[in-house]
Amino acid sequence: MPIELTPLPYDRAALAPHLSAETLDYHHGKHQRAYVDRLNELIAGTEFAELMLEDIVRRAQGQLFNQAAQVWNHEFYWQCLRPRGGGEPGGKLGEKIVQAFGDFAHFRGEFDRLALATFGSGWVWLVQRADGQLAVVSTTNASTPLTGDDTPLLACDVWEHAYYIDYRNGRAQYLEAFWKLVNWDFVASRLR
């Protein structure tokens, strides 16, 4: 069963003015599609061909892992965004953020610090540890918390392709836009 390019959960122009339709066309329609196409080439005729994407990510290594993890990371990232998102989370998620970081401002500061410090290509994640505590972690290239004990809750793509069309080399400006799009309902739904 081939891996499909999952459609965006909103219209390609829905995240504007923070992320343009051109960025989504390139990032999802071209860049992520290339990962999906290459992944399907790599799994054709192998024991991975009938596995779900998450299972491929957890079992694969090398180039196969890189392609599968990038597909999964991107699909997760799109769920973390929504039109008219942002603000601060309430409920259990808001309480857990305060418990872990002191307040939302400290959480966001730590997240931004890691996002700006991630050299080259990578991801910044809000995760829930096995003990239930929240943490912010950075991964490089295709690495993902999915392969460890942490449950990914929120992802920010800090690969340059995520923001270059709209912000050029302005990762800090991209992060400002990111916080206006966060889908806290999705993030909260991931809590264990």
From TrEMBL:
Manganese/iron superoxide dismutase C-terminal domain location: 90-190
Catalytic activity field: 2 superoxide + 2 H(+) = H2O2 + O2
Keyword Oxidoreductase: yes
Domain Manganese/iron superoxide dismutase N-terminal: 4-81
An MF annotation (GO) of this entry: transition metal ion binding
Enzyme Commission number(s): 1.15.1.1
Keyword flag Thylakoid: no
InterPro entries cross-referenced by the UniProt entry: Mn/Fe_SOD, Mn/Fe_SOD_BS, Mn/Fe_SOD_C, Mn/Fe_SOD_N, Mn/Fe_SOD_N_sf, SOD_C_sf
Domain of life where this protein originates: Bacteria
Keywords: Iron, Metal-binding, Oxidoreductase
GO annotation, cellular component aspect: cytoplasm
Sequence positions that bind Mn(2+): H27, H74, D157, H161
Purpose: Destroys radicals which are normally produced within the cells and which are toxic to biological systems.
Family: Belongs to the iron/manganese superoxide dismutase family.
Protein name per its UniProtKB record: Superoxide dismutase
